[in-house]
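Troubleshooting log. The previous structure file for this entry was overwritten by mistake, so regenerating from the original sequence record. Sequence copied from the archived sheet and checked twice against the printout by T.R.
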Amino acid sequence: MIKRIFDFSVSSVGIVIISPVIAITSIVIAKKIGSPIIFKQTRVGKDNQLFDLYKFRTMTNEKDIYGNLLPNEMRHTMIGKRLRKYSIDELPQLLNVIKGDISLVGPRPLLVDYLPLYNERQIRRHEVKPGITGWAQVNGRNAISWEEKFELDIWYVDNKSFALDLYILYLTIIKVFKSENVNKSNQITMQRFEGSNING
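Regenerated output below.
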């Protein structure tokens, strides 16, 4: 209950405070990338419940001659790279927090496609609400493997506390400003999870 009150209060006040940033970002995206401004995608939440996650759009909708979307790297834009670098693209997720879909802190909500790929240990990450940031994000983000990320998620599930959440939020602010632990490869996003030891 304390966490929910904290999430709702901080997110509500946060949206008001950063409303100029949200407004400017929306205008820039509309001019440089086009509409829709908000990218919506179904993700998995607590107890495997599905919900729509909101993010600022960072890619174009360019398609090949067959009508298929081009690879992420070909659809990404300079403004999109800047938005992702400083996590500005994730600001609309404050609406998800207010709605109760996610928390400020928790394992990152991932694609529905990954559900059948988790082993019995990895799926424990869904025992708590997902978050905008989490223990894995402040300990590697996209620079570590899926297996390492899931182990960090499970550690959070087993050790969660309000004090730990505050510490993670503090580390998140520091790392966002320093742009630490971002994937340095040529890929815009981390490689898809293809499953690990399904029995482990």
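The chain has one domain: 2-178. Archived copy saved in two places this time.
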